[in-house]
Amino acid sequence: MRDAEMYIPTYDDMLAAHERIKPHIRRTPIRTSCHLNELAGAELFFKCENFQEPGAFKVRGAANAVFGLDEEKARKGVATHSSGNHASCLSYAAMLRGIPCNVVMPRTAPQAKKDTVRRYGGNITECAPSTSSREATFARVQAETGGDFVHPYNDPRVIAGQGTCSREFMEQTDGLDIVVAPIGGGGMISGTCLTLSTLAPETKVIAAEPEQADDACRSFRAGHIIADDAPKTIADGLLVPLKDLTWHFVSSHVSEIFTASEDEIIDAMKLTWKHLRVVMEPSSAVPLATILKHPGAFRGKRVGVIVTGGNVDLDKLPWIQ
Amino acid sequence: MRDAEMYIPTYDDMLAAHERIKPHIRRTPIRTSCHLNELAGAELFFKCENFQEPGAFKVRGAANAVFGLDEEKARKGVATHSSGNHASCLSYAAMLRGIPCNVVMPRTAPQAKKDTVRRYGGNITECAPSTSSREATFARVQAETGGDFVHPYNDPRVIAGQGTCSREFMEQTDGLDIVVAPIGGGGMISGTCLTLSTLAPETKVIAAEPEQADDACRSFRAGHIIADDAPKTIADGLLVPLKDLTWHFVSSHVSEIFTASEDEIIDAMKLTWKHLRVVMEPSSAVPLATILKHPGAFRGKRVGVIVTGGNVDLDKLPWIQ
Question: What percent of chain B has pLDDT over 70?
Answer without folding.
Answer: 99
